[in-house]
Design goal:
CATH superfamily of the largest domain: Cupredoxins -  blue copper proteins
CATH architecture of the largest domain: Sandwich
Shape: elongated
Structural class: alpha+beta
Strand content: 15-25%
Helix content: 40-55%
Number of domains: 3
Strand order of the largest sheet: 3-2-1-5-8
Oligomer: single chain
Number of strands: 12
CATH topology of the largest domain: Immunoglobulin-like
Order of helices and strands: HHHEEEEEEEEEEHHEEHHHH
Largest sheet: 5 strands, mixed
Distance between the termini: 82 Å
Radius of gyration: 29 Å
CATH class of the largest domain: Mainly Beta
Bound molecules: dinuclear copper ion
Length: about 350
């Protein structure tokens, strides 16, 4: 082979190598990191990717060279030299991978152990999945429950993940970790948010027809804003003359994920439009109040034409208190008339 051809091949190898490295490194493949733990996980990922790219480039370059340099020439039918093993080379190709794999294992173990360490006084939040919504309860704030996860920046947080029905999986891509919500189990997830902002909360376990709608938000706030929010919410929860608010029951149980209700600024489309409740009750030939109530406690008892069965959770009859149910029914009736 002429020198020119070898140079051409090496040139192609170089160009392809540069493009491959750029594709691997330049685009923002991973979500913006919003927790200390995600930063450590990304470090492990990038470390292994860089090691892999270097090895790939070396092996590729050597292979390309060998193919060109030691190819069979025209008319050369002779055998190659009888080589059997080479102790030196074998030691090298055993020791190098051993060192690399051991290094990755050590770094991973350190990251796992540091990510699992929540320190002495973490903020505790109970995360509960139900078809098809997430709720977040702050046990240290008189059991305050919300449908959006609010966390202070810089504080260690332990999330306890559970489910009221089937298997769900809690994931905030920007926090870098997933955890399944399995009936009967209460696994925890440790997160230290380190970036202000609003991030998606996603269900990543197929849990039924509304799986793709089972989304919420995680809002990372400054510690001052978080304390202020917590205090204002707590006051509402503990105030002796605070009556149960139907609007809060609606919001905290994730009804808006599937239903439209102008009064609650929700625009879900998976279930019937709640602004039209009087019309639907008339269609079902039922009195409005009992129609609304049984539609919540026994959603499969009557299915609105055009909507599938078994989408609305059948658990609300058991999970809502009588006061909450009363408040929700009152709220829906008054809101739908207004709407
Ligand atoms: Cu819950 Cu998918």
């Amino acid at each position: 082979m002429r020198k020119g051809q070898i140079l051409t091949l090496l040139g192609i190898g170089l160009v392809v190598g540069v493009i491959a490295t750029a594709v691997a490194v330049l685009p923002q493949w991973l979500p913006v990191r919003a927790s200390v733990e995600a930063g450590r996980i990304d470090f492990v990922i990038w470390m292994t990717i860089v090691i892999s790219i270097v090895i790939f480039a070396l092996v590729g370059a050597v292979m390309l060279y060998e193919i060109v340099r030691f190819r069979a020439r025209e008319g050369d039918d002779s055998d190659g030299p009888p080589i059997h093993g080479h102790t030196g080379v074998e030691i090298v190709w055993t020791v190098i991978p051993l060192v690399i794999v051991t290094a990755i294992a050590i770094v991973s173990a350190v990251v796992l152990s540091r990510n699992g360490n929540a320190g002495v006084n973490p903020l505790r939040v109970d995360v509960t999945g139900v078809q098809y919504a997430w709720t977040f309860t702050y046990p240290d704030a008189h059991g305050l429950t919300t449908n959006v996860l609010r966390l202070p920046k810089g504080r260690s947080v332990v999330l306890t993940i559970s489910t009221k029905d089937v298997i769900h999986s809690f994931w905030v891509p920007n926090f870098g970790q997933k955890q399944d919500a399995v009936p009967g189990l209460h696994p925890t997830l440790h997160i230290t948010p380190d970036r202000l902002g609003t991030y998606p909360v996603v269900c990543v376990e197929l849990c039924g027809l509304g799986h793709s709608l089972m989304r919420s938000e995680a809002i990372v706030m400054t510690p001052t804003a978080f304390d202020k929010w917590l205090k204002s919410q707590q006051a509402a929860v503990t105030s002796p003359n605070a009556s149960v608010s139907g609007a809060a029951v609606y919001k905290n149980n994730g009804c808006g994920a599937c239903h439209t209700l102008t009064a609650a600024a929700s625009s879900g489309k998976a279930g019937p439009d709640l602004d039209q409740l009087p019309k639907w009750a008339a269609q079902a030939k039922q009195p409005l109040a009992s129609f609304v109530r049984t539609s919540i406690t026994d959603p499969n008892g009557y299915i609105q034409p055009g909507f599938p069965r078994n989408v609305m959770p059948g658990t609300f009859g058991a999970t809502l208190s009588t006061q909450q149910l009363d408040a929700l029914v009152r709220y829906l009736i008054s809101s739908s008339k207004k709407g």
